[in-house]
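Quick one: Adenine methyltransferase from Paenibacillus flagellatus, structure tokens please.
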Amino acid sequence: MSINPALFSSKTDLWATPQDFFNRLDAEFNFELDVCALPENAKCTRFYSPVVDGLKQDWAKDGRRIWCNPPYGRHIEKWIKKAYETSLKGATVVCLLPVRPDTKYWHQYCMKGEVRFVKGRLKFGIAKNAAPFPSAVVIFGEGARVGQLIAI
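--- reply ---
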């Protein structure tokens, strides 16, 4: 088995959502806006690319059902905080995140949403192998079952 060294480094923080995984969530939430995308991997017709910088946009103005697979680097906390704060404006924000319950942001924000742990490991984008970290879907906003820990 060959391991992609970038998975263990900061060489990339762009992890394209597996399409079949997204499709199952989209069937449930009917997403309107992808806030962290590249043109070639956007999951919604409306999306923010790095050129637009999703952190500088008003997500709630542009969509009520929002998909967020943020960059998994140093600034992930900013994306999760914005997702949570956007939910306070009436939007539902669904985030695909690495499971990191040892971090401050996980307790400060993720635990205020519904947490669905992903069974197994996801294979992101064009990677040959599954990620070396567990993932979770964290849902903020209307319909989120706060405090629920669910396996999917």
